[in-house]
Amino acid sequence: MIQGCYHCGEPIPEKCNFSVDILGESRYLCCAGCTAVATMIVENSLTNYYEYRTQPAQKSELVPYHLKTLLLYDHQDIQDDFVNENAQHHKEILLSVDGVSCAACAWLIEKQLYKQTGVITIEVNITTHRALLVWDASIVKLSYLLTLIYQLGYKAAPFEVDLQEQQYQQTMRHYLYKLGLAGIATMQIMMLAIALYFDVFDKHENSFRHYLRWISLFITTPVLLYSALPFYQNAWRNIRAFTLGMDVPVSIALLFAYGASLYATITDQGEVYFESISMFTFFLLLGRFLEMRARRRAAAMSANLLKRIPTMATLISGEKIAAKRLKISDVVTVLPGEYLPADGIIIQGTTTIDESMLTGESVAVKRTQNAQVFAGTLNGNGNITIKVSHNPKDAFMSNIIRLQDHALYSKPKIAVMADHVARYFVCIILIVALMTWLYWQMYRPQDALWITLAVLVATCPCALSLATPTALTCATSSLSQLGLLVRRSHVLETLHKVNHVIVDKTGTLTEGNIQLVATDTFGQYSTADVLTYAAELERYANHPLAQPFVTYQAKTPLFNHVENSIGYGLSGIINHHQWRIGKYDFVRQHHSFLDHIPDIEYSDDYSIWLSCDGHIVAAFKIEDPLRKESKQLINSFKQQGIKVTMLTGDHSIHAKHVAKQLNIEHLYANMTPMSKLDFLNKIPTTDISLMIGDGINDAPILAGAHLSIALSSGTDIAKSSADMVLLSNNLLSIITARKLALRTRNIIRENLAWALGYNLIILPLAITGLVAPYIAVLGMSASSMIVVSNSLRLLK
């Protein structure tokens, strides 16, 4: 006999024949509405909803509505706003995840999603309450993955600054309600408990004692059912997924204490622990509330950057449109004091731009016509018109945040180890608590419950799970303020271990502001001719050495095809004549005996050579001034006992000159990309290398070094190969970053030492009955706050 609608549980009207195959069986439904919702759930492979739900749906139930909303995220037009595609052609999204409270929550989400075919990466950051998801859209839909997260009890949606702010404020408001109720109840119950504790009643007033217990029960029950609800929800998620989280022992302690107190109140036998329940809940909520505020401060960097991009933009026509709707080639006007709505090129006007949020440099920089400007930077004193060069989601600031998220969400070894230890620690706590209860039940049964309660509460490893992620988040935020973009998770672990710095010369130790100071010709070609040919070949190079020739380029390209031999030079053909520019040995290859121009002997005075059909026709002398901070950088490394080696593709005379100025003892000149990599492979295994470079020829060694830093003025391939990008181009930020890495290591060690040390000390005290439950609550909350507060020092 059919009991009711499978979807909503309501009675099925007579002569109603709606049905849908769900979970391998034909299910009867009450109306077309329930049929439509159930069909949508089945067609989109979301039937797990029916497996995990705890009660039938209602007509206005939230879950089916959300499932319908999640399906919208599969539409390409909607994904264009928040989904990116990486180099492997996989989709990538940054999610805001509501309800994540500890490392176990993050582990639970990651564990469940990694089971799904098509998920490439899922990394959850409990400090920022965000997750980085990479998936193969041809195998699995985004809506399905979001549904899985919903089924675990968490709410996930594409990260948006305003939405994240609303969710944060809503969460904090709910915590305050729960905290307020627990606090008021604790004060009331403690007044009643004083009378019970000090035994102020004689035998004839036992009924009055019994009356106070019932009053305490009624006050405590809302605390248990409402204020402590977040702990039960987290614990149930963990248990349902066959794992253990921090809130499992907390929930067990609360429920057992309440159950025992309820039994004692009804039977009028034994002790009650209502004040401990209320106090435990209050202090635990207070600790979580303060943790959330502290972690919010640590995670605010990227959100604050995005907030600086205005919501509206003014087109050249005067029409105002949403900034996120701007397209490439749109022309917008920006008034003084306004934030730029998009990346673009200035096509009219001159101004100063405050780029401090990107580079860490507080001094505004002058920008004129044809200069590149970036979304979120502040226009100074001029009216400018810019032509949009990138879509909003591909803007420079968005890329910075996206790359930083990759580093933040990919966990270093020490964080993975801490999470692993914390999960096993919960299991150990439960076993120890059980053994403690059994022991005291035999020898002092009247105290067994409160001693077990103290063990469960005092040793909760919340501080252990917070020790590493909060420190890493704070340190990454501080590096961003220095103008250093972190792209890999191991940066802070490796930077303080570096004992061998390898550095490029041109564009790294020098300004890259290369100037052509002399041109010598050999043969029939004039100076103007050789400069034009040189400029046309260098047109196809992306290296500082090509910049001096830009002004000599022809109006239209002369060479149809130019080959770039990285680290050597460029070659092209005109009228069956092969032209080469670059190093001396490179330009003399394929020597032609048809030409009778005499060979030119190699000279250290020249940096760049030009040949036609293998014969030298010109030589160019260039100069590149040193960066003002280069000498201080090298001296600082050497004072710290770090070996410094300079590798450069330039010839020896220029390299020796720079090495002498900077007091660099280890120099290797005329290096090709492969020879640089060979050098790296031959250094002692005890050397932890840091490579600093900017050019295409530095890409292999940047990728191969233990740690690498590329300058923002360098080539794209260098920046994509490096572990960090120096946005400010201030080399001294590297020294500050290393000091910060040392501080981060020390603070993580301090956090772990405190978290483990506290548990090792408090555990035997709790087992022996020397710690009251309310003292255990205070100790556990204080332990977590000490860890978070210690990590926040890294923001200074």
TrEMBL record:
PROSITE patterns according to UniProt: ATPASE_E1_E2, COF_2, HMA_2
Membrane topology category: Multi-pass membrane protein
InterPro entries: ATPase-cat-bd, ATPase_P-typ_cyto_dom_N, ATPase_P-typ_P_site, ATPase_P-typ_TM_dom_sf, ATPase_P-typ_transduc_dom_A_sf, ATPase_P-type_domA, HAD-like_sf, HAD_sf
Keywords on record: ATP-binding, Cell membrane, Ion transport, Magnesium, Membrane, Metal-binding, Nucleotide-binding, Phosphoprotein, Translocase, Transmembrane, Transmembrane helix, Transport
Entries under NCBIfam families matching the protein: ATPase-IB1_Cu (TIGR01511), ATPase-IB_hvy (TIGR01525), ATPase_P-type (TIGR01494)
Coarse class of the protein's main subcellular location: membrane
Subcellular location: Cell membrane
Native species: Photobacterium iliopiscarium
UniProt family annotation: Belongs to the cation transport ATPase (P-type) (TC 3.A.3) family. Type IB subfamily.
Boundaries of every HMA domain copy: 91-157
The protein's name in its UniProt record: Copper-translocating P-type ATPase
